[in-house]
Amino acid sequence: MRNFVARKLSNGAALQDSDHARLDELMRHWKAIPAKSDIISQGDDPEYVHAILDGISCRYKILPDGRRSIMDLLIPGDFCDMNIAILGRMDHSIGTLTPCRVAYISRSEIEELLFDFPRIARAMWWATLVDEAILREWLVNMGQRRSDRQMAHLLCELYLRYAAIGWPDEFALALTQEQLADTLGITVVHAQRVIAALRQDGLIALRDRQITIPDIARLMEFSEFNPDYLHLPPES
């Protein structure tokens, strides 16, 4: 079974067996990190590039008043800090929202991928461009959509991102209301109301404290979701 990093990168380039073999080797070096822990902190000069193998992490900043702003959600297959070898110092923190397995890849190994594995290099460049497209969509989502449509739009995005890596289980989002509030830039009370309204309308369901989606097409219609910014191949 291919690892989720390879599965994600396969959406950006036609990887061959040698590419998969090298990625499999790199993903064998991982650590288990509990929830609510930093993988890397703002101001750090990291030695390794990190990839999420399991669980959900996030990019975040802490505001002067102590509030947290989540700027990106990282799921299995995502690199956390691919370009840190160029930038050097972290300008934000990356922390776990759920228990995670995280691969540690040295800068020299990343350079090897870029110079010796052209298909992986192209896929990594694709992944970076998609990250930028997601950021642009998040700016539109937070600035122009109602809170209920913001939440629905985020859930649609995560549903498709999980589908694109061949996630073997049914989509079930295990984030807390506080984590979702920090992601959407709303209060926890407001997030509770939005979740309750979406649930009452049958757009989402809750099972074992996890959000599931009974009808993704209906949720996409409600949130006016257009998946073009994810730049996925037609079969994903």
From TrEMBL:
Task: Specify the domain of life of the species encoding this protein.
Answer: Bacteria
- HTH crp-type domain boundaries: 145-217
Question: Which molecular-function annotations from GO does this UniProt entry contain?
Answer: DNA binding; DNA-binding transcription factor activity
Ordered alphabetically, the record's keywords are: DNA-binding, Transcription, Transcription regulation
Keyword Phosphoprotein attributed:
no
Q: Name one GO cellular component term.
A: cytosol
InterPro entries annotated for this entry? cNMP-bd_dom, cNMP-bd_dom_sf, Env_Response_Regulators, HTH_CRP, RmlC-like_jellyroll, WH-like_DNA-bd_sf, WH_DNA-bd_sf
Q: Name one Pfam family in it.
A: HTH_Crp_2
Protein name, UniProt field: Helix-turn-helix domain-containing protein
Q: What taxonomic classification does the UniProt entry list for its organism?
A: Bacteria, Pseudomonadati, Pseudomonadota, Alphaproteobacteria, Rhodobacterales
